[in-house]
Write a structure and sequence with these properties.
- Helix content is 29%, strand content 22%.
- The protein folds into two domains: 192 residues, Fructose-1,6-Bisphosphatase, subunit A, domain 1 (Fructose-1,6-Bisphosphatase, Chain A, domain 1, 2-Layer Sandwich), CATH 3.30.540; 128 residues, 3-Layer(aba) Sandwich (D-Maltodextrin-Binding Protein, domain 2), CATH 3.40.190.80.
- The longest helix is centred in the N-terminal third of the chain and has 22 residues.
- Bound molecules: 6-O-phosphono-alpha-D-fructofuranose.
Length: 339
């Protein structure tokens, strides 16, 4: 059984040009994930301290759970503690955070993250997740960090991953050489390799969407859902509907079993709900590295040129054939969301 730390070092050795900085960065994330996992597991026991609402709102106007703030602070501190990262952007931070100090001015990387996605599920003991995305900075070492460092298209990602705090806790990541999953063993205090080279089935029979919003969906989505629900033995339809209400959990299940997750545009959310930079791009990188696909219904998610930190996008991600079929219906019955 190989641990995540051993695997990172082993993989680094396969690339002579590797300097070890990305390995060190990934180890920072690993460490913060262990701490957050511990607090999530005891949230039910310490509602007054770590559970429930923080009483404040993030830039999205969403009520911050105490664990949202705690997870954000833990990952931010872990990333600042070493010298590989010059700044971060987070769903829980209004603006990007530059790590201003001598020891960070020459750092090569920026990290964008959703420190605790789906946190409203914690109080009802439903799984939640952390999502992260790593880029090389655009600004020159020694110069100030700028917004340009963060507004990069997903195709520039160096690495991406997620932690799913579920029935077991897993860390899944890619550095562009496949997708690898590690399961946390609390008796060892280590993430151990459990899913090397994850491949998402090209075809699947699971669709994940909040059908409560059906009336607001674009016609292309409505037509696709009816397609999923029709009986057709050859294509194993009707498909199964599975929606946990926690993006990382729905995504992780679909990665292993095949399936599609959709959060489309709707009348009350013209660009959907999910965030391009720290939710859709990292999961798109993982999906593509595992043989899957991610689009906004019309174009590849990772080719979208970002214009703001917290911008939203309609999102179709999962098994390639399923995303392509949904895109066919979107092209035939709907049009791209307004820029
Ligand atoms: P809805 C959680 O708030 C989240 O960002 C994702 O984790 C989840 O898939 C989605 O929103 C749920 O949104 O509108 O269906 O409740």
């Amino acid at each position: 059984m190989i641990t995540l730390g051993e695997y990172i070092v082993k993989k680094q050795a396969e690339y002579p040009s590797a300097t070890g900085e990305l390995s060190s960065l990934l180890s920072s994330i690993r460490r913060a994930a262990k701490v957050v996992n511990r607090e999530i597991n005891r949230a039910g026991l310490a509602v007054d301290i770590i559970g429930g609402s923080s009483g404040s709102e993030n830039v999205q106007g969403e009520v911050q759970q105490k664990l949202d703030v705690y997870a954000n602070d833990m990952f931010k501190a872990a990333l600042e503690a070493r010298g590989e990262v010059c700044g971060i952007a987070s769903e829980e931070e209004d603006h990007f955070v530059a790590f201003d100090s001598e020891s960070h001015s020459n750092a090569k990387y920026v990290v964008l993250m959703d420190p605790l996605d789906g946190s409203s599920n914690i109080d009802v003991n439903v799984s939640v997740g952390t999502i992260f995305s790593i880029y090389r900075r655009i600004s020159k070492p020694g110069e100030p960090v700028t917004m340009e460092d963060f507004l990069q298209p997903g195709i520039n990602q160096i690495a991406a991953g997620y932690v799913v705090y579920g029935s077991s806790t897993m860390l899944v990541y890619t550095t562009g050489h496949g997708v690898h999953g590690f399961t946390y063993d609390p008796t060892l205090g280590s993430f151990c390799l459990s899913h090397e080279n994850i491949r998402i089935p090209e075809e699947g029979t699971i669709y994940s969407i909040n059908e409560g919003n059906y009336i607001k969906f674009p016609d292309g989505v409505k037509k696709y859902l009816k397609y999923c629900q029709e009986k057709d033995d050859a294509s194993k339809r009707p498909y199964t509907s599975r929606y946990i209400g926690s993006l990382v959990s729905d995504f992780h299940r679909n990665m292993l079993k095949g399936g599609i997750y959709i959060y489309p545009s709707g009348t009350s959310a013209p660009n959907g709900k999910l965030r391009l930079l720290y939710e859709c791009n990292p999961l798109a990188f993982l999906a593509e590295q595992a043989g899957g696909k991610a689009s906004d219904g019309f174009r590849r998610i990772m080719e979208i040129k970002p214009t703001s930190l917290h911008q939203r996008t309609p999102y179709f991600v999962g098994s390639t054939r399923m995303v392509e079929k949904a895109e066919e219906f979107m092209t035939q019955y709907s049009s791209p969301a307004a820029e």
